[in-house]
Automatic annotation (TrEMBL):
GO terms for molecular function: phosphatase activity. One of its GO terms (cellular component) is Golgi membrane. Residues 1-19 form the signal peptide. Its main location: Golgi. Responsible for the 2-O-dephosphorylation of xylose in the glycosaminoglycan-protein linkage region of proteoglycans thereby regulating the amount of mature glycosaminoglycan (GAG) chains. Sulfated glycosaminoglycans (GAGs), including heparan sulfate and chondroitin sulfate, are synthesized on the so-called common GAG-protein linkage region (GlcUAbeta1-3Galbeta1-3Galbeta1-4Xylbeta1-O-Ser) of core proteins, which is formed by the stepwise addition of monosaccharide residues by the respective specific glycosyltransferases. It comes from Octodon degus (Degu). The keyword Amino-acid biosynthesis does not apply. GO terms for biological process: chondroitin sulfate proteoglycan biosynthetic process; glycosaminoglycan biosynthetic process. It is a single-pass type II membrane protein. Interacts with B3GAT3; the interaction increases the 2-phosphoxylose phosphatase activity of PXYLP1 during completion of linkage region formation in a B3GAT3-mediated manner. It holds the Pfam family His_Phos_2. The lineage of its organism: Eukaryota, Metazoa, Chordata, Craniata, Vertebrata. CDD domains: HP_HAP_like. This is 2-phosphoxylose phosphatase 1.
Length: 464
């Protein structure tokens, strides 16, 4: 069975249910397990399809939903870059032939794609923070380079931007028609795929894309920790987590057998194949409906792919149980979450700058943030994943402010560690801002069993 047939069968066989309010549960099942719509046992092909996030019809989302007496005053968006060419190549196999130029009449399509290319071709009229100025504003290679954003990745974020524009700009008037540069805060890592993803989202989002008002700051760290990146204890937890992953791999005899079979196909030692991280390349084959690599010795097939993906699912399960990654995440995500609450507090005080913040990042950015927030059941960040923090003011009690957190359009506020019990004690539909502030300022350190009450002390505790 080829990949396309598998995808079609998968799409048609996944049961769909309808919520009481008439909305489809399609978007919800993508975030947290849903016993009504999920396969009864973990399905690596199903999970891979969700990970690809193949652009299709506009998805339903819960962004911007609140009682009429609440006013939206601030939005902060964290995205993972869109679909990309692999970062690793499987040795001795033909290079994956994917075109990274943007062609308006080629699938996947978006109504704004042609205008996006035209606008980006003019080039920024103001320089971004170094080294971003040297990066191209859109992908443009007939044969993709390693890690380069694809047309699929651009379309994914044009869709994200359009969706957020309909909600935040058209409905809630978050940005005025004469919006100014200081009302945006834009930050990205120094990779072309993150800068280009951010530009695609902004092009879909802004009421009028004006280069003079677009300024991206460069973030050297994938954790977006800015000047607070030195944290010895965080690194110790990461090392222990990597050791846990290694030991789990050693125990999986089926995985070892699969790597051995694949290594024989391509004619290299098993260790060399594993070091080439073949799943990264295989996921690109899968997402783009391209047959897996073949040589004179045979083919890598769907069976091999399923075994590797199933191990990843089992690894994520053990990761949640062992808690090492959680401890790494609490320290890794603290600087950016601290910046998030600081911006919210300024907005609550009446500041009108940085009404919309965008962080264009990676899976290794979003995953620790999700874990630190207590969203342990959230799926691993798919291509073009979005995590959104909304700040609302109660018009009836203007001094009261509330937070909503949404992951890929699903409201996960009451799944977070700091607000999972709030709705049982209060009839209010959102989480008080002070809950989130207390979590970042105090409870994250309590969760570490730390004697420290601040980030520096927690990072420099002796031993683990």
């Amino acid at each position: 069975m080829d990949i396309l047939t598998t995808l079609l069968l998968l799409v048609h066989l996944i049961p769909m249910s309808t919520a009481k309010d008439g909305s489809s549960s399609k978007s919800r099942k993508r975030i947290l397990p849903d016993p009504v719509t999920e396969p009864r046992v973990a399905d690596p092909v199903y999970e891979a399809l969700l990970y690809c996030n193949i652009p299709s019809v506009a998805e339903r989302s819960m962004e911007g939903h609140a009682p009429h007496h609440f006013k939206l005053i601030s939005v902060q968006v964290f995205i993972r870059h869109g679909d990309r060419y692999p970062l690793y190549a499987i040795p001795k196999t033909k290079r994956l032939d994917i075109d990274c130029t943007l062609v308006a009449n080629r699938k996947p399509y978006h109504p704004k794609l042609e205008a996006f290319v035209s606008h980006m071709s003019k080039g920024p009229e103001t320089a971004f923070e170094s080294p971003l100025s040297s990066l191209p504003p859109f992908p443009n290679h007939p044969l993709c380079e390693m890690g380069e954003l694809t047309q699929t990745g651009v379309v994914q974020h044009l869709q994200n931007g359009q969706l957020l524009r309909d909600i935040y700009v058209k409905k809630h008037k978050l940005l005025p028609a004469d919006w100014s540069a200081d009302q945006l805060y834009l930050e990205t890592t120094g990779k072309s795929r993150t800068l280009q993803s951010g530009l695609a989202l902004l092009y879909g989002f802004l009421p009028d894309f004006d280069w003079k008002k677009i300024y991206f700051r460069h973030q050297p760290s994938a954790l977006f920790c800015s000047g607070n990146c030195y944290c010895p204890l965080r690194n110790q937890y990461l090392e222990k987590e990597q050791r846990r992953q290694y030991l789990l791999r050693l125990k999986n005899s089926q995985l070892e057998k699969t790597y051995g079979e694949m290594a024989r196909v391509v004619g290299i030692p098993t260790k060399q194949l594993r070091a080439a991280n073949p799943v990264d390349s295989l996921l690109c084959h899968f997402c783009h409906n391209v047959s897996f690599p073949c040589t004179r010795s045979g083919c890598i097939d769907m069976g091999h792919f399923k075994v590797i993906r199933m191990h990843q699912i089992e690894d994520e399960k053990e990761r949640r149980e062992k808690k090492l990654y959680l401890r790494y995440s609490l320290l890794g995500a603290h600087p950016i979450l601290n910046q998030t609450i600081s911006r919210m507090q300024r907005a609550a005080e009446g500041r009108k700058d940085e009404l919309f913040a965008l962080y264009s990042a990676h899976d290794v950015t979003l995953s620790p943030v999700l874990s630190a927030l207590g969203l342990s059941e959230a799926r691993f960040p798919r291509f073009a994943a979005r995590l959104i923090f909304e700040l609302w003011q109660d018009r009836e009690k203007p001094s009261e402010h509330s937070v909503r957190i949404l992951y890929n359009g699903v409201d996960v506020t009451f799944h977070t560690a700091f607000c999972q019990d709030h709705h049982r004690r209060s009839p209010k539909p959102m989480c008080p801002l002070e809950n989130f502030v207390r979590f970042v300022k105090r409870d994250m350190f309590v969760a570490l069993d730390s004697s420290g009450t601040n980030y520096y002390d927690a990072c420099h505790m002796e031993g683990i």
